[in-house]
Amino acid sequence: MVPLAGETYFSQKPTGSPPLPGNDGWRSGGGKKRGDSSRARGQSAAIIVLLTLFLSLIFPSGLLAELPVSRVAKVCPAPDQNLTFSYTAVPLYQFGSKVDGGGSLSVFTLIFSAGVKKQENEQLKAGLDFTYIYDGYSFSGMTGFRVPYPWSAIHTFGLDVPLIYFVTQDCTWKIYLVPTGQFSGESTATFGDALVYGGSFGVSHVFSPKVELGIGLAGYYNLAQATFFPYPIVKIKISDRIQITNPFGASPAGPGGGVLNYKLTQHWSVGLGGAYRSYRFRLDHNGPIPGGIGQYRSCPVFATLGYQQSPAFRAEIYAGATLWNKIYIDDHGGDELLRTKQNAAPMLGFSASGAF
Predict the structure, then answer these.
(1) What's the chain's average pLDDT?
(2) Which of 20, 101, 107, 243 shows its CA 20 to 30 Å from the CA of 305?
């Protein structure tokens, strides 16, 4: 499904698998592996191009040249002996919409993440993040498909080790490194077959106190499939009220996306955002597709209304839709068996987050 806050999201064919013929809605994959990386790369490139065009049109004089270099110098964070703890909790509901071939699908998602970070010295910040995601898929009325309920509840347990290294003495160049490991699958999926691992590496430059831009590359071994994609690093403060950021970091689910926030008052803000998400998970080894792989792709677009009392607490309401939804089923070794599409679906969610 679609995490909307700080998310951090990993042979042989089984014997006795039931035949899974296609029909008017579901198409057979012909036993070929599907490449996620090209689509993800295209989405990331589109985000970067649109962002560049947006900035060049709105700010022809250039935010990058707004301040002299002397104003940018020495932005290194001070070492801190204290730990910083953070948390995020997100319930999210994607309403049901029609699936090609008959029936409908709705998804309820619950996300919980907790992390700890420490500024070790002026040049190194290190952390540890844990994420749990529950996705409840509700298929209904799919009489045209031989397996009307291909999966139901998906559990994702993730562990990240985010590292930020300030390369130069003035700390205007940064390196981001995030090793990642996770379990993603149904509760009775074979543990070793449901592991995802990899990481992301990015470089950014602080052009001014208002602008940090960069690019990274993420790579993961994602359930019988290796995926690679670039992702943007964007932190732009257009004014005291307007800023552009990534809504969540790169993960096995895809690039970080982008969101435009507008501060209404000291505590209230609104925003518009979007991203590309692709969730891949291992299925029950005793289910209708034994040990297979499910995949759900979507492009969420959303508006937000946020309230922040202090750094320790921020609440947001999300409303939007998921577009270009696609459902895939692969066999145990990652060869595509079936695919279908789902109509655009409204979504509504809430998040509570903070750091202390």
Answers:
(1) 82
(2) 107
Residue 21 is assigned to a structural domain of this protein: no
pLDDT digits (tens, 9 = 90+) for 175-233: 999 999 999 999 999 999 999 999 999 999 999 888 999 999 999 999 999 999 898 89
With respect to residue 199, please indicate whether it lies within any of the assigned structural domains: yes
Q: What angle do CA 280, 285, 289 make, to 5 degrees?
A: 70
346 alpha-carbon distance from chain centroid: 18
Examine residue 319 and state whether it is found in any structural domain, yes or no: yes
> Residue 324's domain spans which residues?
27-60+78-355
The Cα-based distances of 102 to 112, 119, 147 in angstroms read: 33, 53, 12
**Neighbour-count burial for 144-162, b at 16+ CB within 10 Å, e otherwise:** bbbbeebbeebbbebebeb
Number of compact structural domains in the chain? 1
**What are 104's two structure tokens?**
């409908």
CA atoms within a 13 Å half-sphere pointing along the CA-CB vector of 211: 17
pLDDT tens profile 63-103: 544 444 445 556 688 888 899 999 999 999 999 999 988 89
Q: Which two tokens stand for residue 162?
A: 């985010």
The model's pLDDT over 72-81, given as tens digits with 9 standing for 90+, comes to 556 688 888 8
DSSP 3-state of 342: strand
The answer to whether residues 330 and 283 touch, using CB atoms and an 8 Å cutoff, is no
From 94, 218, 112, select the one nearest 157 (Cα to Cα).
112
What is the DSSP code (8-state) at residue 65? G
**How buried is residue 4: exposed, middle or buried, by Cβ count under 10 Å (0-12/13-18/19+)?**
buried
Q: Give the E-state strand segments of the chain in sequence order.
A: 27-28, 84-98, 104-119, 124-140, 153-160, 163-166, 173-185, 195-208, 211-221, 226-237, 242-245, 258-263, 268-274, 277-282, 293-310, 313-330, 336-342, 345-355
Cα distances (angstroms) measured from residue 136 to each of 184, 249, 335: 13, 23, 24
Q: What is the pLDDT of residue 166?
A: 94
Rounded Cα distance, 162 and 73, in Å: 25
* Rounded distance between C-alpha atoms, residue 284 and residue 306, angstroms: 38
